[in-house]
Amino acid sequence: MLWQADTPQNPTSESFYRFALVRERPTVTMPVMLAKKHTIVLGNEKGGSGKTTSAMHVIASLLAEGLRVGSIDLDSRQRSLSRYVENRRNWSETNDVPLAMPDHHVVDRSDADVLTEQHRAERQAFETVYAQLTAANDVIVIDSPGSDTFLSRLGHAVADTIITPMNDSFVDFDLLAQVNPDTYEVKRPSLYAEMVWDARKRRAIADGGTIDWVVMRNRLSSLDAKNKRRVEAGLEALSDRIGFRIAPGFGERVIFREMFPSGLTLLDLREKGAGGGLSMSHVAARAEVRQLIATLELPDLHPDQRQQAQA
Known about the structure:
Number of strands: 11
Number of domains: 1
Mean pLDDT: 80
CATH class: Alpha Beta
Number of helices: 10
Strand order of the largest sheet: 5-4-6-3-7-10-11
Order of helices and strands: EEEHEHEHEHEHEEHEHEHHH
């Protein structure tokens, strides 16, 4: 089956992308055609949106549920998630406090001179790591770079859930859609929305699977500003048109920035020796993390219960 869609420049009244079934099934090479586990991708074509912080808190939440979590860092230049995991391991060993750890790997960008060779090498490296983690874990979490790269597209193509953190501003909103500067009405999808659309199309062609796209508003101010209301209205209008759900993200809290050097998350503060007591701000921030996980509506990922359901 081939899923076809209206072009972004020709949206329908129902959505930007109207899918229709036709009989042809072209040959499409997906990154991974082997057995897969539920894969969560943190993606956005902009740095500073909170992808890595969100990724680590999602990982910690899944680990706290007793799941085996495989994590992949596709940004081999900055390696923000890798540094977070490394800091976590070092803090645990230094303070003799056991912390649950993901099975973490980095996929490096190829330095080949020829583009086709770069893509071949990166595809092979990604498939190898992904297959290895799939075989040994219950769920996979991928942190993608803040730019459109071949590795980022590979990661998005295997996603079951995409989480797109964005700051509460029209600067970040512009990566999802362009708006009328006078009326703030959505005109057409933008760069990252088209990338997700392409990933959804390829996934549907390959195995008939679907991708749940969740946009989370990060660094929300407690003030009820006009710009905040406009961004909220724009997201609500856009969500139905290009098919994503809106999740409450993390507020503008110092605690999220303070935890990176130690590799801790808000969920670790309950561990003996980890971070001291909880302030009201910490309690509120932990509630935001729990609310995000609940909004994702993830399937039951525990292997024993999956097997019982399939029996």
